[in-house]
Amino acid sequence: MLNWGVLGCAAIAEQHVIRAIGQSANGRVLAVASRDAERARAAAERHGVPRHYGSYEALLRDPDVDAVYIPLPNHLHCEWTIRAAFAGKHVLCEKPFAMNADEAARMAQACRDANVTLAEAFMYRHHPRYARARELIAAGAIGDVRGVAAWFTFDLSGRGDDIRFRPELGGGSVYDNGCYAVSGARLALGAEPEAVTAHAYRSERHGGVDMMNAALLEFPGGVGATLQFGMWCDGRNEIQVLGSRGSIVIPEAFYYDPPAALRLIVRSEGRTAEETFAPADHYVLQVESFADSVLGGAAPAFGPRDAVANMRVLDAIRASSRSRARISLLGSD
């Protein structure tokens, strides 16, 4: 069993990840920490966690904690991942991995130097639909891939002082849900984009952050990915992979309320087939996969190299939307 510590009492931790670790076959939450000792105590009591700490440093000093989950605000991911690595803890860091690719690279290097496992918490990609979709693409079920389209949108505009409206803390939809769309396109294509062009709508009502984005990612071989992601529009949550002889549609691509039976829709040679997957909690699958890699000594399914690559694309989207220019990614490794 992997003994987990949770740095912070964010909603994602309390609503999903603490529960998922508790339901996993190979992990348990041993400790939770907050800068507010009472908040840590209350969270531990709610979730049946045996230990609680009034500082992140105190949790990292606990010798019985093997790994930490970091759901802190985006601007703190780099600092506390590096601190956790220095403390000898394995790290599952919430998305977006960092504020930029330079931070991401520093996090990856710190964990390599400390010989600890590091991964970014994109739960969606651990659902078996994605392995199946990649299998179908590789087998030529839809012919040659011609393009990808991804949507991840919802409306948070009515919220008041939401942390996602604070640019200094890593607010904005590029960081919040654009990271999913970029990750999904890269995962579906199994490749890295060569250039990015993006456009953003920013709202002064919401701290000046980007509330809506459209991006074009240019992949090798003339393949393009078009992405729409935002926090002030109608909700959509889907990936489409378009091929020369068919297509694959992944509904509820990035988020769903587990457990749920999910679908993969395959259109090929004029015929449509649906594959249905048994209910599975992608948060549980994520933490089990991470624990397997730590306990078995294997590389994680999606390691820090992938996280750094995703951040490079997010950096390019942000730069393009501000300069209104195409940003090349060639030679950025």
3D structure, described in words:
The protein has helices at residues 11-23, 37-47, 56-60, 77-86, 101-114, 128-138, 173-189, 282-296, 304-323; strands at residues 2-7, 27-33, 51-53, 67-70, 90-94, 118-121, 145-155, 195-202, 210-219, 223-230, 232-243, 246-251, 262-268, 271-277, 327-328. Strand 8 and strand 9 (210-219) form a beta hairpin. With 333 residues, the chain is α/β, with parallel strands linked by helices.
Structural class, from helix and strand content? alpha/beta
Oligomer: single chain
- C-alpha termini separation: 36 Å
Radius of gyration: 20 Å
Shape: globular
Q: Give the helix level as a range of percent.
A: 25-40%
Order of helices and strands: EHEHEHEHEHEHEHEEEEEEEHHE
Proportion of beta-strand residues: 25-35%
What's the total helix number?
Answer: 9
Number of strands: 15
User: Major beta sheet, specifics?
Assistant: 9 strands, mixed
Biggest sheet: strand arrangement: 14-13-12-11-7-10-9-8-15
Report mean pLDDT, rounded to a whole number: 97
Uncertain runs are none
